Amino acid sequence: MIAITDHAHRIRTGAVSAVHTVQQTLEAFRQRDAAYHTATRLLDERALKAAADVDARIARGEPVGPLAGVPFGVKDLFDLAGLVTTAGSVVLKDQPPAAQDAEVVRRLCAAGAIPVATLNMDEFAYGFATENAHYGTTKNPHDTACLAGGSSGGSAAAVAAGLLPLTLGSDTNGSIRVPASLCGVWGLRPTQGVLPLDGVYPFAASLDVVGPFTRTSADLACAFEALSGENSAIVQDVSGLKIGRLDGWFAQDLDPDLVAGVSRLLAACADVRSVTLPDVARARAASFVITAAEGGALHSGRLRTQPMAYDPATRDRLIAGALLPSLPVIQAQRLRAWFRDVLHETFRDVDILVAPATPGVAPRLDQPTITLGGRQVSARANLGLFTQPLSLAGMPVVAAPLAPAPGKPVGLPLGVQLIAAPGREATLLAFAQTMEKAGLLGFPSASADVSKQA
After folding, report:
1. Residue 113: which CATH number?
2. Which structural domain range is residue 23 located in?
3. Which residue out of 17, 89, 151, 228 is catalytically annotated?
4. Is residue 314 domain-resident?
5. Does residue 231 surpass a pLDDT of 80?
């Protein structure tokens, strides 16, 4: 597995050309993506033109950026100049093409990276499964009989399959963290407001955040540095950090292997304490209400004029949200403010909180339910059980894959959330890199690294 920085270094030094790298990447999608269905469009013309420009600038001795020639993909709700932004739907197909790239796409391109594909998602980002009635279902590269998670499933699966080293997704209630967990890759939901949302189609604007997926924690730090302009790749001494293990709501109905993996992780930390957050169920309910209300309001006009163009499941949820009375929405916002204050207070005593990202491994595509609290409940609706309440606080969260248990066969991935106070991405990423180097975090790709063929 080659690091993003090594990938760019090879191109800058002429070991391989950017054009050849992009050609290999596009060919890998054509040969292998039918098994996973991660991409909705390949950007051949744009990608090859950009790659030729990178090679020409290198030949002239001009600077090409820290991500020179690194191919990346974007969830299909990021604007790309000249293309219609679909947001995973046919409802927007007659909209005018985007006049310019989304700001975060522009930043990656300015760092030398090259967009090669748009990636599958739940329609309008409303879901945790990437089962799209218009563009198909994205499958988990570790087992194609299983879900990839959502709504950024195409972005997570493309990284897990080794098709791309870097992708962009969005996270409103867990849409980066859930698929990262199920696909065994790294994802970052940054502090709310750190990365711009210009040119990103909204779901619930007061909760929406964008962030990267990568195969390693070091790559995640590198990507965030390019996106934010902040130096988050500096390795810090994390030995004295105070770590809180979230229990209560976050300790229910967990896969035993997940419990064991978290215990191995925390055993490597010097200062660990249990933390119980109050009223997490109500916080999750508030997140549901806010998402439904904002999503319903955004789509209310089109729902009146072209309701049948929507995926029926998405349409019903959006209509229900549009019909919510104001009182529960106001109550949900008040609870959000209170819960955010609770978390801020928690970080007076700890530096990082650790929680599961999902209750267990990816459900099978034909598995409609999972067991929670002794009851059979919808698998898809409850994949965000542990991510939704934490969204309310707007704090940075790294979705980290647990390393496979020593001496046991490698099964499906399991993931955790690493949470810190606002603006503490550098601390999170340093902790993540330390734990990955210790062999406690990180999961193998589902297939051979495509970039090694370059």
Report:
1. 3.90.1300.10
2. 4-278+338-453
3. 151
4. no
5. no
